[in-house]
Amino acid sequence: MASKKLLVAMFMSLLVSFAACQEHQTHSERRRSRSAEKCRFSSRRSQPMERIVSEGGVMELWDEMEEQFRCAGVAAMRVILQPRCLTLPNYQSSPRLLYIVQGEGLMGIDFPGCPETYHAMSRRREREMEGRSHTVREDMHQKVQRFRQGDLIAIPAGAAHWCYNDRDQDVIAVAVHDLSNQANQLDQSLRMFFLAGGAPRSSLSGQTRRMRGQENLQNMMNAFDPELMAEAFGVPIETMQKMQRQDDRGFIVRAESMRMIVPEEEEEEDEYEMMEGEEEEVYRRRRRMRRDRDPCNENENGSEETTSNGLEETMCAMKVRYNMNTRREADVYSRHGGRLNLVNENKLPVLRLLGMSAERGNLFPNALYAPHWEMNSHSIVYCTRGEARVQVVGSHGQLVMDETVREGDMFIVPQYFASACKVGRDGFEFVSFKTNSMPMRSPMAGYTSVFRSMPLGVLMNSYLMSRSEARDVKQMRGQQQTYLLSPMRRSRSS
What we know:
Blueprint: H1 2-35, E1 50-54, E2 57-61, H2 67-72, E3 74-81, E4 85-92, E5 96-102, E6 105-110, E7 118-119, E8 125-129, E9 132-136, E10 140-141, E11 144-147, E12 151-155, E13 160-164, E14 171-178, E15 192-194, H3 206-212, H4 226-233, H5 237-244, E16 252-254, H6 265-277, H7 280-293, E17 321-323, E18 332-334, E19 338-343, H8 350-354, E20 357-363, E21 368-374, E22 379-393, E23 399-406, E24 410-413, E25 418-434, E26 441-443, H9 456-463, H10 467-475, E27 484-485
Helix pairs in contact: 4-5, 9-10
């Protein structure tokens, strides 16, 4: 009898857990639906409307109040980071996906509660300095990651992060924020919280000041009482005053002398090769072997440290970047059409937490991205190279977009709106950010076309066409082409 009660209790516990999981997954969709009420969805190519110039780079922001961004519940920005410059630590109220268009550098994303796993061998050196003993302490910090061109980086809401360009080429990155995500319980506005620096007033237009009110583009430390903060940090008040001061350098500053502990370059290359070609379990095994060889994983007695609080096995050790330029990782490939690389929660599990994903497209000249619609997400498309003609059709059968997009343009394709893309003669490359960690699409042409699954009679009566014409609609593209279609000559009947 007791065992039956136990089984019933376990079943009810699992049922409640499943219901909570479903509620967690659908809360963001419900909030996005509420934000889309009385919203007139549209699509058009757009360029950044605001430009904030700092000492070491530029931040460009698209107008989040523009109809297509407001209806989709997202915001976008582009950051240009000059060589030997640092983006000051900051965090946002919503999750963001960052795509590296150009360059490489170092990034740190700090998760609260995670251990400082990057440190030299602990040692204390004492020396006499003016008759006093002086202790030299080694630096310890959380993981520092090297990013490269083509990397997709996932940054959870509220996670403080920074970026440093240690190369000789500008870093160009594009970020999309999901303002409708359940992690953001504030209003659906792009809110940035800087722990240092802040946007210089001279670089903000009057319109920007009125719209943002300056409240979220300044140093947060500055508003606290200096004596209170000095007591909290246990430092002299003079040190705290330095942390609270505002200057005109902005939020990107020059940092010529940057010393930090980073992975060896050969280890970073090994990790990229593992991610490109080998199974995830093998990748984890190699990482564990490297940690075992690291003397920093040993305790004072020289034995291996095995204690764990469990947190570093989940969030702390979770991968936050994935390179989307790898040809062998292409999810869709056409010899004459191009390739698509999709990064969803299966490839990068942290995306499940963010509720976002991304797609990288490299389309060949004159190819055609088959007409299709997204079944469970909006698509925020940023053009990285070339040009293409894009058409988007809305719910009333009306053409809401028919424009040629070029490098630097951004546009949004709303959920369920059908879109098609005809590539120009120089090819076309893009990255598309999705508002779902497992996006699904339904193609209208190609081998997996929705029409291919229908009986001939349905097509014949729907479009008043002959059987041969209906068969051509279903099978003309054959079994080799799906989303990316090669160019073909059309013959008009007289």
